[in-house]
């Protein structure tokens, strides 16, 4: 017999229940959130309006910055608003929407990072066939497939969440709605559901991370045939991508591929990959890339 859910809203406990700490949290994360939006907006507008940044690498950076901004948008505004409000309530429909958007843009980031690796592989290991392998039409098709894959992944999360009956106490020990914290107010045994979550999100993160790292080992090994200058440029590009991969995947693996237990430190790890990482991505790509900095300076000086 199916159990009907008696919950119309959830109470988010947030990062802390200390009022003073909550005020500090709201100010800190407001600046981090605004910085994330500003950085990614600058990169998106620079790549879109600069003819010199028309290569496939910048095409994928454009979508990574877009996904970063949207990914931060799914959690940061709620965290900031709840830090200054007395009742941290979120309706059932808003909670489901947040889960969908969070997993959609998070998975989109994963797929864009994989596409960026594919671009680096073709440029370094197949330089002669590069323009044929990574053409403009191919890039467009790959990004469309990434959007479709993200939609399928998030839809699977929502279908799983909608099958869970909830009852009081309707408290979620987190600062946003996600699948594992959402299992606490469930009225049924969630062991199998938790396994499905780990198998879905955890496996995606773990397998993608390991494949990317192993593949980069082969790419770096192939640089021995390059000149000193060519090796330096390739290493600079690959290093930036590897840093971004580690920053994004390691916290995600800890959250989604760990044993079926929620620890207090999980919320701080979630803060890192939902708020801090989208802030760091643009800094890593732009500070190490002279072309982006030059195009950004030229474009925005002309605008001013």
Task: Describe the structure using short key phrases.
3 strands, mainly alpha, Rhopdopsin 7-helix transmembrane proteins, 304 residues, 3-stranded mixed beta sheet
Question: What features would you describe in this structure?
Answer:
This protein is mainly alpha-helical. It has a single domain, classed as Rhopdopsin 7-helix transmembrane proteins, CATH 1.20.1070. Helix content is 73%, strand content 3%. It contains 11 helices and 3 strands. It has helices at residues 19-49, 56-73, 76-83, 92-125, 130-133, 136-162, 179-182, 191-222, 228-256, 266-287, 290-303, and strands spanning 9-12, 89-91, 171-172.
Percent helix range: over 70%
The CATH class, by name, is Mainly Alpha
The description of the largest β-sheet is: 3 strands, mixed
Uncertain parts = none
Beta-strand content estimate: under 5%
Can you tell me the number of structural domains?
A: 1
Distance between the ends: 65 Å
Q: Assign the CATH architecture.
A: Up-down Bundle
CATH topology: Rhopdopsin 7-helix transmembrane proteins
In DSSP terms (H or I, runs of 4 or more residues), the helix count works out at 11
Output the strand order for the largest sheet.
Answer: 2-1-3
Query: Considering the protein shown, what is the CATH homologous superfamily?
Result: Rhodopsin 7-helix transmembrane proteins
Rg result? 21 Å
Concise overview:
This protein is mainly α. It contains 11 helices and 3 strands.
């Amino acid at each position: 017999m199916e159990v009907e859910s008696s919950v119309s809203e959830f109470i988010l406990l947030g990062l802390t229940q200390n009022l003073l700490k909550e005020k500090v949290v709201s100010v800190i994360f407001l600046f981090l959130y605004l910085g994330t939006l500003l950085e990614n907006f600058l990169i998106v507008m620079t790549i879109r309006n600069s003819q010199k940044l028309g290569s496939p690498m910048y095409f994928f950076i454009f979508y990574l910055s877009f996904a970063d901004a949207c990914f931060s948008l799914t959690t940061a505004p709620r965290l900031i608003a709840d830090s200054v409000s007395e009742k941290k309530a979120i309706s059932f429909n808003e909670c489901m929407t947040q889960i969908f958007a969070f997993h959609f843009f998070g998975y989109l980031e994963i797929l864009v990072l994989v596409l960026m690796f594919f671009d680096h592989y073709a440029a370094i290991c197949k330089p002669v066939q590069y323009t044929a392998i990574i053409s403009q039409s191919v890039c467009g098709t790959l990004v469309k497939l990434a959007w479709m894959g993200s939609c399928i992944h998030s839809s699977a999360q929502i279908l799983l969440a909608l099958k869970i009956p909830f009852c009081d106490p309707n408290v979620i020990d987190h600062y946003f709605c996600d699948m594992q914290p959402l299992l606490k107010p469930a009225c049924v045994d969630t062991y199998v559901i938790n396994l499905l979550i780990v198998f879905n999100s955890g496996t995606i993160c773990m397998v993608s991370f390991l494949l990317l790292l192993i593949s980069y080992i082969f790419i770096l090994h192939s640089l021995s045939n390059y000149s000193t200058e060519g090796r330096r440029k390739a290493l600079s590009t690959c290093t930036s991508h590897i840093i971004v991969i580690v920053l994004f995947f390691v916290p995600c693996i800890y959250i989604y591929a760990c044993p079926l237990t929620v620890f207090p430190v999980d919320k701080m790890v979630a803060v890192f990959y939902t708020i801090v990482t989208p802030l760091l991505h643009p800094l890593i790509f732009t500070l190490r890339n002279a072309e982006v900095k030059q195009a950004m300076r030229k474009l925005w000086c002309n605008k001013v």
